[in-house]
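Sorry to interrupt, but I need a hand with the structure work. I would like you to pick a protein and set down its sequence and fold. Please put the record directly below this note.
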Amino acid sequence: MNMKKLEPFSASSPKERARRQYGDRCGRSRSPSRSDGGDPAARPDGEREATPGKPLKTALECEVLVLGAGPGGYAAAFRAADLGLKTILVEREPTLGGVCLNVGCIPSKALLHTVHILQEARALAAHGIAFGAPKIDLNKLRAFKAGVVSKLTSGLSGLARARKVQVITGVGAFVDAHHLEVNAPDGTTRIPFKQAIIAAGSEPVKLPFLPDDPRIIDSTGALELPCQPQRMLVIGGGIIGLEMATVYAALGAQVDIVEMQDGLMIGADRDLVNVWQTFNRSRFANLMLNTKTTHAEAKDDGIHIRFEGAAAPSQPQRYDLVLVAVGRAPNGARIGADKAGVRVSARGFIEVDRQRRTNVPHIYAVGDIVGQPMLAHKAVHEGHIAAQAAAGEKSVFDALQIPSVAYTDPEVAWAGKTEMQCQSEGIPYEKAVFPWAAMGRALANARDEGLTKLLFDPKTHRIIGGGIVGISAGDLIGEIGLAIEMGADAADIGKTIHPHPTLTESVGMAAEWFEGICTDLPPQKKKVSP
């Protein structure tokens, strides 16, 4: 492989010795684990001790303390401050925004946008416009991604200052029900609080049988773009794994995907996922379902992986880079919550009520740490609810739908009930599907592989769910989410005039088809009354 050395290494741990040995073979260092912020005072059981030789500071006080500055945390802190509560926000990283803004949602979308344009440029050859082979400069691509992140995180710092939210940087852990200790290089600070909101997030799940090698990365490492691998393995067929597979495949890697279950994007209806799989059949080298990795060995020429299952190759496969994307685990057991009396499950989740209140009445929890779905937009909504409840408002979490989006190519998005949920929960439903092959804008875009599906209550005709697969599905799903929350029925949606020609027309036309009045599809057979 022809790769550039990315950074020098000087320490002598096994991982760093491997980096020196393998040099630029996808050996870019990973960021410190976000579970403990790389803090030497962090203990495995989640307890913290004061930084040796540094004083314990206790001058701070607040009405609301928020632990974690991801989307749920900063939303909670800012809302609490807007409601007149003196607020302190504790974050272990030097910038606000948590995983989402720093090493998750935002940087991944910056990369996905870039490779989407790259793919569109390549596709233009079929339209009579051809470009030369792209020249990929990883340093500039990293700089673009970093610039996007910097704009957002610096903006959050400004919003915190404008609201007089005091930000404390360090690793926080509870010492009792009214005090939190924050470990930082300059010492330990003990903060008394009247109320607290836990927004400590989650971290990538690790596979214990994989060797500790810089060529085996998690989602954070993947976003660093350590190199352009010739051959890459993605372990896990969920949204994160497929998004990163999309990026690296567009940049020229031969990508294999392995998934233990019998399908990808578990949670989405199979008809949506099938469209994605058909479209991507030639993009990825091997898609191994019902298959798992059983052994990995780090050698000079790469990571050698053995598989077991329905699609397992008979011989070990060599990869330049291996991405582990098998899910995320909540950080509930890492913050000393038990010392505050907060109950934490064996898996690290914290149970909350509709106000996001834990079993300790003055302590709330939001975001990944309270359970699925682990999504930033859910966390923001929960953060607002918790802050308002802490301020004495009668605010509860009563969302009828939480949209999910895979920002792959094509995108897959769904909101409300899925068909699988309706079937497993015994919920009666009827559906309407509008194929994008019948939609002018999709044909004009040369992207007519998609479809829009709406689910309705058979008696009331109110919409209860919907899904979209196709370009910009993540932008289109908002209309379906709003329709569910507003209790719209098929007539409401179908009789809403949608602009033409647009992709959002597919939502209106699916509703029209359900009502039997769609003129953009062949005439329907009239239903015979029993």
In short: The longest strand covers residues 187-198. The two ends are 69 Å apart (CA to CA).
